[in-house]
Amino acid sequence: MTNTLHSPLVRTVLDRLFAAAALDDDAPRGPLPGGSLETATAQERADALAAVYMPVSARGGDLLYTLVRAARPETVVEFGTSFGISTVYLAAAVADNGTGRVYATEMSATKVATARANLAEAGLGDVVTILPGNALDTLADVPGPIGLVLLDGWKELSVPVLRLLEPRLAPGALVVADDVTFASMADYLDYVRDPANGYVSVAFPVEDGMEISCHTGGATTYS
Length: 223
Prior knowledge:
Number of helices: 8
Radius of gyration: 16 Å
CATH class: Alpha Beta
């Protein structure tokens, strides 16, 4: 069975990107209106942190690849592409499945261009569409059924993005959220861990924590 994730082409790109991401603490930050990340808008933060990777961990990436290979979703949605590290894992799994497409979204124009170049270098650009702009706008028209969602963008938008996508989630769709040990993910965890919202949810112990939720909700409409 093909495993593109460990091909020399993909490994070279991932090793380069993880090495660059390890220098995040030293990456330059742009100016912020008001001088604070907390008071800045999502777009202002994206522009100010355009040189910062903020990636999933390598083990988190392996988990994403495994889930996509197992679930074989026709449509994968990623909220928060950054430089494309997590996108490479998702795209490698889709390519190896021989079916499906990744729809990724990113607010920073710099990161959109670089992520596209990284995916092309890894030989995976053909299975990915990167949508530039605010996810609440760009993901509104992604067709369902959506089989897997990765939430790794601005944390306060995790619940709004998920709720936007819910009418198009396939029965049994997987929703993976990164960085769930962050205090800013408390509202999201409350949402997916409440059975009334239609999920069975469990934490997974990779770096900074991932939450894996299975959508068990009622009738879903696809568009």
